[in-house]
Design goal:
Helix content is 42%, strand content 14%. The chain is an alpha+beta fold. The longest helix has 20 residues. The model has no long low-confidence stretch (mean pLDDT 94). The structure holds FE2/S2 (inorganic) cluster (2 copies).
């Protein structure tokens, strides 16, 4: 089938099977390798993207669902000011990321801060519960997201709350 959708702000068309996973389409048809194939059952976060404005595991989205949708991958998101906030906050707090989890951690942070400018510890841990990483302790995660929140408040309003 032929499917049109918006990918990182551009209209694109792909020819594929109806049940092909979006993560495979991104990697194989568009060469976007930021979303990784990990567990393929929606549990690890390696394949995270933004789908119609919501953070979602692209391994769980079959091709037939993407017609007319808007997909943002880490490659597209990394061109934004919001990404810069997250990169700066992660770096300032020394949060560990690797090629496997970075995509998911960045987009999970964005999803969280979109909903709440200053999420609580519990909200942060819940927001990251779909990102599998045994190398990061909960305190580091919370400090990193709080650092991002502070940097964002400063960029948007010239102050921290
Ligand atoms: S590969 Fe999609 S959530 Fe693990
Ligand atoms: S730092 Fe990447 S999986 Fe833990």
């Amino acid at each position: 089938m032929t499917i049109g959708f918006i990918l990182n702000g551009e209209d694109v068309v792909v020819r594929t099977e109806a049940d092909t996973r979006l993560v495979d389409i991104l990697r194989d048809n568009f060469g976007l390798l930021g979303a990784k194939t990990g567990c393929l059952i929606g549990k690890c976060g390696a394949c995270t993207i933004i789908f119609n404005g919501e953070v979602a595991p692209s391994c769980q989205i079959p091709a037939f669902r993407i017609r007319g949708s808007e997909v943002i991958t880490i490659e597209g998101f990394s061109q934004t000011d919001e990404f810069e906030d997250i990169a700066a906050g992660f770096s300032r707090s020394g949060l560990e990321t690797c090629l496997f989890c970075r995509n998911g951690k960045v987009l999970a942070a964005e999803a969280l801060l979109e909903q709440k400018a200053q999420p609580s510890r519990e909200e942060i841990l819940l927001g990251f519960s779909g990102i599998k990483c045994r190398c990061t302790d909960p305190d580091s995660l919370v400090s990193a997201v709080q650092a991002v929140a502070e940097i964002r408040q400063k960029r948007l309003y010239g102050r921290t709350a």
